[in-house]
Every structure is written in C-alpha cells, then in structure tokens.
Amino acid sequence: MLGRLRHPLAAVGATTALTLPWLFVWATGGTPGLSHLQTVAITGVAVLGASFMLAWGAETAEEDVPRAFALAVLAVLAVAPEYAVDALYAWTAGANAGTARGAEAANLAVANMTGANRILIGLGWSAIALFTVYRAGSSSDTAVSKESGFLTSNVELDHDIATEIAFLLAATAFAFFVPLGGGIGMLDTVVLVGLYVTYIAIIIRGEVDETDEQVGVPAYFQSYSKGPRIASVLFLFGYSGFMIYTAVHPFAHGLESLGKAIGVPAFFMIQWIAPLASESPELIVVAYLVNKARSTAGFNALISSKLNQWTLLIGTLAVVYSIASGQIGALPFDEKQQAEIWITAAQSFFAIAILSNFEISVREAIALLVLFATQIIAEFYVIQTMADAQAHELSLLILYAYTVVYLVLGAVLFFQRRREVRALFGRTISTAREAMGGQSSHAEHAD
C-alpha cells in the first residue's frame, strides 16, 4: 500500500484532486453561491495543484525540446491569467473610447500591467533568490555560492540566459519611450512583439540540452516512449493552463473583495492584489524548482516570464484596444500611469544590471525587495491619509524619486560591470548566429 502511495501517478492524482472542487464549481456555475473567502480558498487550492502539474510538464518537455523553449512555454501559461485581466480592461477602454469609463479602464489596464511587472521583480526575483540561498543549507544546489562577509552569498545563473537578459534590456530601453507617445500604440506593439518573436525564433532553434537527472513525476513521464511522453506533456500543460486560466480570475476578484472590506482602495487592489494573484502560479512553480535544487531552471523561468510580460503583454494592449474601438488607436493613460511605466522600466533597468554578471547576491535581492516594498507602503500611506489632490501630487513625487534611485543604482552597476555586459551581448550574438545557421561558438564568449 505504501509503495502505491509513493508511485509518481499517486502524486499526479493528489494534485488533480486539488483542482476537482473548483472544476465542479466552474462546471455547475456555482461561483455566485460561494462567499468571497470560500472562493479564494477553492480557487487558491486549484491554482496550487495546477502549478505543480505545469512544472512537471515543463520538466518532462526538456527531454524533447530546448530547455529555454520549454521554460518560455511554462512562463506564458503561468501568466496567461494576467494577460486575460489586462485584455479585459483594454477591451473595456476601447469599447468606451472617449468616455470617462473608457479612460478609467485604460488607466486600470496600465496599472495592472505595471503592477504585475514590478511584483515579478520586486517580490518574485528577490524572494526566490533569498529562498534559494536559504534552501542551499539543506540541499545540494550547486548554483549557490557561499561567500564570507555580510549578506554576500549569491545565486549563480546559467550563462545561457544571456539571450533573455539581452532582449529584456532592449525591451526596457524601448519602454522608457512609450509614455512619450501619449499612449500604447501600434508602433509599440510592432517593436515589443517583434522583439519577443525574434527571441522565440532564436531559442527554438537551439539544441536539446542534456537533461538534468529527474526524479518523481518528470522522471516517470520521461521514461515513456516519445509519443506517450509528448501526449503527457500536452495534457499537463493543457489541463493546468485551463485550471489556472479559469481559477485565477475569481481568485483575484475574491481577494479584491476581501481587501475592499477592510478598506483597501479599489485602484490599489487592481494594481497590486489582482496581479499578485495572477502571478502566483509562476512563483509557485519556481519555488517548486528551487526546492528540488533546480534554482537555475527556476530563475530562467522567472526571467523568461518577465520578458514575455514586458513585451507581449504591453504589445497586445494596443491590439485589443483597437479591435474593441473599431479603429486603430493607442491605449491612453494619464500622468500617474506615465510615471508608473517609467518606474517599472527603471526597476527593470536596475534588476538587469544586477544580473549582468550572471549572479544575484543576498544583498542585491534585499535591495530589490526593500525598494519595491517601501515604495508601495509609502504610496499606500499617502493615499489613505491625505486628500485626493494632495495624495496625487505626493504619489507622483514618490514615483519619480524611486525612478531616479533605480536609474542611479542601475547605471552604477552597469558601469562597474561593463566588461560583463559586453561579454553578455557577445554571447547573445553568438547564440543568434548559431540559431540562424552562422558559424560561431559560445566558447568564444565564455568567461
């Protein structure tokens, strides 16, 4: 009996069982009959179970496709709910273009997008780095380097992630110019979506990596012959993606309602609580990988997720808005959201500077977390304690101040690591040439 419980399929059955209550509620249309707390509990458990299945699918897929591509698929599926939430607001803005309701929806779309991107770095990258170092004390994770000194231990990243970092830096540089156009328009879509398509074209042509020795569910499915193995991967991706897509919306709505009940402003909930809910599958998957001493794959997934949100997510907003409005146009936003885009780009600039040497130290992770948390806390305090006009002005001042801090810190790091940055772009060019059939070698740019 104990042997059966340890069988990999028992784990698959257990995680599937976590999703069944929500599947029943969704299929029978029973959501309106649940309290907000019950909705959060049922959908939250479903997201947890689906996240494990998503991670197993990605690990199993590494047997047949390049790891970077498998993780890119995982990243897209894990944050698909975020796309759906933003698309909803962008559609509402387009359908009500020129009205107060349309303007509010457009600002909410931008706020939700910037909130999701900043959560991914400020909370996701930092917390996972700290968790990785913590787990290294009881695991065999060779990516963690213990250094003498105060908070100097670091997580070493796979140098093959250079392509993702380079494309993320290019997207970040372009993002600084987005607010200057007065809205997110078709030029932004062409550039940002074009960057992501180019990135996918490069990584999908890479060689299938020699897979890490797997255990548990991924090892079991990888032992299948190719046909059943691929079918298992498609099922894991498809079912978990469906569960996450259907469950995260009511999960986020339930959290928003609970937040409003304790006095949290609605706009604040849309920017921070809803994205936190929609990012949760990604963070659960990465924590699972780190717990298996696969921190390198975990960070690769986080960086890939940031890249697709910083390119595809922004790029699709103008498309959805234009379709809803019946004509090509730009998703408008106000001065506050302009500042939100700039601070989001500045945070990304600083975070990329940290990763430019393919390491993130405990000290750097804490810096990301503290800057992220203090800005939110300061803005929340201002919103809650001051009149609207005064709160608006001070909120803008806080955003601009933190933008400057991020930019200065990032510029200093890039200057100090200029040799590493040149090597990073050299490695990316080498990878692109190899993918397109050119003659080059990673060895030329290896450290």
What do these coordinates show?
By secondary structure, this protein is mostly helical. It has a single domain (2-445), classed as Up-down Bundle (A middle domain of Talin 1). Helix content is 76%, strand content 3%. The chain contains 16 helices and five strands. The chain has helices spanning 2-5, 8-28, 36-61, 67-78, 80-95, 100-135, 162-175, 186-203, 216-222, 226-261, 266-291, 295-325, 335-355, 362-385, 388-416, 418-435, and strands spanning 144-145, 154-156, 183-184, 331-332, 359-361. The strands form two sheets. It has a three-stranded antiparallel sheet. The chain has a two-stranded antiparallel sheet with strand order 3-4. Strand 1 and strand 2 (154-156) form a beta hairpin. The model is unreliable at 439-447 (pLDDT under 50).
Query: Tell me, what's the shape?
Result: globular
- CATH class equals Mainly Alpha
Q: What's the average pLDDT? A: 85
Main sheet: strands, sense, barrel: 3 strands, antiparallel
Radius of gyration over C-alpha positions, nearest whole angstrom:
22 Å
Low-confidence stretches: 439-447
Q: CATH H level: which superfamily?
A: NCX, central ion-binding region
Helical content class: over 70%
User: Order of strands across the biggest sheet?
Assistant: 1-2-5
**Overall CATH architecture:** Up-down Bundle
The share of residues in extended strands comes to under 5%
* Count of discrete alpha- or pi-helical segments spanning 4 or more residues: 16
Please report the distance between the alpha carbons of the first and last residues. Answer: 52 Å
How many DSSP-defined strands?
5
Provide the number of structural domains: 1
